[in-house]
Write a structure and sequence with these properties.
This protein is of the alpha+beta class and 398 residues long. It is 33% helix and 20% strand. Strands 1, 2, 3, 4, 5, 10, 11, 12, 13 and 14 form a ten-stranded mixed sheet that branches. A two-stranded antiparallel ribbon has the order 6-7. The chain has a two-stranded antiparallel sheet with strand order 8-9. Strand 3, helix 2 and strand 4 form a beta-alpha-beta unit.
Length: 398
C-alpha cells in the first residue's frame, strides 16, 4: 500500500470571534490557503485529483465547500471537491480521507483542508417551511444549537452543551479551577513565545481583509493570544456553571480560519517535484460517552498505539486540542502521561483558537513544522469531538 505524504501544510492566521476575519466568507478563506499551498509547492493544479474539505457549521450559502473552494481558487473545473464533518476532528479527518484515497490508488494528489467562519454562523428557523401563519417564529443560533444537539436526548438525557461535559470530567478526574487556570496561562505564554521567536512564520499565510473605509488590511498574526494572561487575571473570571471550573479564560475560543495541504502518493513525489514534510503512519477513531466527550482522545490514542505498535514515549511531540483546560488535564490522567514539555509546545485551542473545521489541519501544520524545527521523528495529533468521539493520528517527519 502506498504511503501518503503531506506536502506544504499551511494555514491562515486565526481570527477571533467577530474579529479581523469576520468580513471574509469561508470560500474566500479556503481559496486563499489553497492557492498558497499550490504556490509554495509549485504543483500544476491540473494534477489535483480531488479536494476534501471539512466544515462543521455548513449551510446553503456555500454548499459542498470543497467544490466551491476549488472553483473560488480558480482551479480547473475538472477538479472535483467534497465536504465532510467530524466536528472538532473534521480537519484531521479530511487529511485522513485524502490519505485513504492515496493509499488505495483512487488518487495521486488530493488537496485536504478545513475551514470555519464562526463569526458568520447564522440563525435559522425550522418553523417556516410549511408556514407559520400567526404567532411567534423561533430562531435557532446554529452555533449553540449544534452543541446542544450533539446526541439524542431520548437515549442520553439532556446535556446542555460542551461546558457541561467538561465539568463532568473535572469532577470525575479531580481537576481543580486553579489547575485549569494554570494550564490556560501556560497555553497563552507558549503561543506568545512561539510568535516572538518566529516559529509560526513558515506555516502562516497572511490574508488581505477588505475594510468598510480605506484600504484592505493585511492580517498576519493569530489575534486571540493574550501574552499578559496571569493567574490573577484568570481567577477574576466567573465560572460558566455554578460551582464549576470552566471559565471563558480556560476554554477554547470561537474562531475563523482555514488550513490546507497536499496529500500525495509517495511514488509520485519525484515526478511532481514535491518534497514532503511528513508521512501518515496510522490513525484511529473511537467513541465515548457523550456526557464525557472530552475524554475521547484516551480510547482513540490507545487504539492507535495498539494498531501501530508505537508508544507515547516514542512521540517527539503531541498536539492535543485544548477544548477546555480541564479536558486536557483529564486526558493526561487517562493516558497516565504528563510530559508537558512535549505537549502543545506552541499553544493550542485556548490560545491560538479553535476554528472547528480548520483546527485539525492547523494542528497538523503546527506539528509538522515544529517536528522539522526540532528534527524529531514522530508526532501525535489528537482531539476530543462533540457527541462523544476521539480522533488520533501519528505522522512521521520526512
Amino acid at each position: 500500500m502506498r504511503r501518503a505524504a503531506i506536502v506544504a501544510p499551511l494555514r491562515t492566521p486565526v481570527g477571533t470571534f467577530g474579529g479581523s476575519l469576520r468580513p471574509l466568507a469561508v470560500e474566500v478563506l479556503g481559496a486563499h490557503v489553497v492557492n498558497a499551498v499550490l504556490s509554495k509547492s509549485g504543483l500544476d493544479p491540473a494534477r489535483i485529483d480531488d479536494i476534501v474539505f471539512a466544515q462543521s457549521y455548513a449551510n446553503s450559502e456555500t454548499p459542498c465547500v470543497g467544490r466551491w473552494i476549488g472553483l473560488q481558487a480558480g482551479l480547473p473545473v475538472e477538479v472535483p471537491g467534497m465536504q465532510l464533518d467530524r466536528r472538532c476532528g473534521g480537519g484531521l479527518q479530511a487529511v485522513l480521507n485524502a490519505a485513504m484515497m492515496i493509499q488505495t490508488g483512487v488518487a495521486d494528489v488530493v488537496v485536504a483542508g478545513g475551514v470555519e467562519s464562526m463569526s458568520n454562523i447564522e440563525y435559522y428557523s425550522t418553523d417556516m417551511r410549511w408556514g407559520s401563519r400567526a404567532g411567534t417564529v423561533k430562531m435557532h443560533d446554529r452555533l449553540e444549537r449544534g452543541r446542544e444537539r450533539s446526541q439524542p436526548e431520548e437515549r442520553f438525557g439532556h446535556i446542555s452543551g460542551m461546558i457541561e461535559t467538561a465539568e463532568n470530567l473535572a469532577r470525575v478526574y479531580g481537576i481543580s479551577r486553579e489547575d485549569s487556570d494554570a494550564y490556560a496561562m501556560q497555553s497563552h505564554r507558549r503561543a506568545a513565545q512561539a510568535w516572538s521567536e518566529g516559529r509560526f512564520q513558515a506555516e502562516v499565510v497572511p490574508i488581505s481583509v477588505p475594510q468598510r473605509k480605506g484600504e484592505p488590511v493585511l492580517f498576519s498574526r493569530d489575534e486571540g493570544i493574550r501574552a499578559e494572561t496571569s493567574m490573577e487575571s484568570l481567577s477574576k473570571l466567573r465560572t460558566l456553571m455554578r460551582d464549576g471550573t470552566v471559565t471563558a479564560g480556560n476554554s477554547s475560543q470561537q474562531n475563523d480560519a482555514a488550513a490546507a495541504c497536499l496529500v500525495v502518493a509517495e511514488d509520485k513525489l519525484a515526478e511532481l517535484g514535491l518534497e514532503p514534510m511528513g508521512y501518515l503512519v496510522g490513525w484511529a477513531a473511537a467513541g465515548c460517552e457523550p456526557s464525557q466527550m472530552g475524554i475521547g482522545p484516551v480510547p482513540a490514542v490507545h487504539k492507535l498505539l495498539a494498531k501501530t505498535g508505537l508508544s507515547l514515549a516514542q512521540m517527539d511531540l503531541v498536539e492535543l486540542n485544548e477544548a477546555f483546560a480541564c479536558q486536557v488535564l483529564a486526558v493526561l490522567k487517562g493516558w497516565q502521561w504528563h510530559d508537558t514539555d512535549r505537549l502543545n509546545v506552541n499553544g493550542s485551542g485556548i490560545s491560538l483558537g479553535h476554528p472547528i473545521g480548520a483546527t485539525g489541519v492547523r494542528m497538523m501544520a503546527t506539528l509538522l513544522h515544529e517536528l522539522q524545527r526540532r528534527q524529531g521523528r514522530y508526532g501525535l495529533e489528537t482531539m476530543c469531538i462533540g457527541g462523544g468521539q476521539g480522533l488520533a493520528a501519528i505522522f512521521e517527519r520526512y
